[in-house]
Amino acid sequence: MEKEHYLEALRRLLCEAAECEAKHPADFMVMVAYVHKRTRQSIGINTLKRFYNYGGESAMPRNETLNVLAQSLGYRNFTDFCNHYQPDDNARASDIVLGAHVASIDLLPRQKVHLRWNPGRDCLIECLGNNTFRVIESQQTKLSAGDTFQASFFALGHTALLANLIHGNNAFPLYEIGKQGGLTLVEKIDK
């Protein structure tokens, strides 16, 4: 029963990321294209239809299929996805953050950080120094290239709070990303 919890979360987030509902044949074509664009791997339309129990056909996908679907959302594999969606009764009110993270104090000016979060959000940012960042590239987020903000840390599996966000002609004192399971990728790019 617990695995079904994760499968339902995966179904829901894939629909959100691909911006479709899994109710019409065309939705599955959109999902196939989305998965291929994000992973460069192919998933069959019929496989997705069975995964969503479309038309009454249902089958448990192979682990390889679940891994590809999780990768399309920014996770390493399905197990990594499940680790970010623990049942609520296991949630803690507070805890030490031990996982992968990037601290702005450890970055040099012009150094880049790649961030991902659900559903299917992808962002490349550049450190400007003094905890300040500029968005370089952004896919499926409300952030746009050229936006600036301040942040101290980006931690895998946790939300990130962006302070003093300048988005176009608008300023926001606080903006939160990764509210659905936290950041799924935090990668410092050393170039």
List the defining traits of the structure above:
two-stranded antiparallel ribbon, 2 domains, 191 residues, alpha+beta, 7-stranded antiparallel sheet
Oligomeric state, counting identical vs distinct chains: single chain
Q: Outline the biggest β-sheet.
A: 7 strands, antiparallel
Could you tell me the strand content as a percent range? 25-35%
Alpha carbon gyration radius: 18 Å
Distance between the termini: 45 Å
- Percentage of residues assigned to helices: 25-40%
Spatial arrangement of strands, main beta sheet: 8-7-5-4-3-2-9
Shape: elongated
The structure class reads alpha+beta
Total discrete domains: 2
Could you list the spans in which at least 5 consecutive residues all have pLDDT below 50? none
- Average pLDDT rating: 87
What can you tell me about this protein's structure?
With 191 residues, the protein is α+β, with helices and mostly antiparallel strands. It contains 5 helices and 9 strands, in the order H-H-H-H-H-E-E-E-E-E-E-E-E-E. The protein has helices at residues 2-18, 25-39, 45-51, 63-72, 78-84; strands at 101-103, 112-117, 121-129, 132-139, 148-150, 153-155, 160-167, 170-177, 183-189. Strand 2 and strand 3 (121-129) form a beta hairpin. Helix 1 packs across helix 2 (25-39). The N and C termini lie far apart (45 Å).
Reconstruct the topology from this structure.
Elements: H1 2-18, H2 25-39, H3 45-51, H4 63-72, H5 78-84, E1 101-103, E2 112-117, E3 121-129, E4 132-139, E5 148-150, E6 153-155, E7 160-167, E8 170-177, E9 183-189
Antiparallel strand pairs: 1-6, 2-3, 2-9, 3-4, 4-5, 5-7, 7-8
Helix pairs in contact: 1-2, 2-4, 4-5
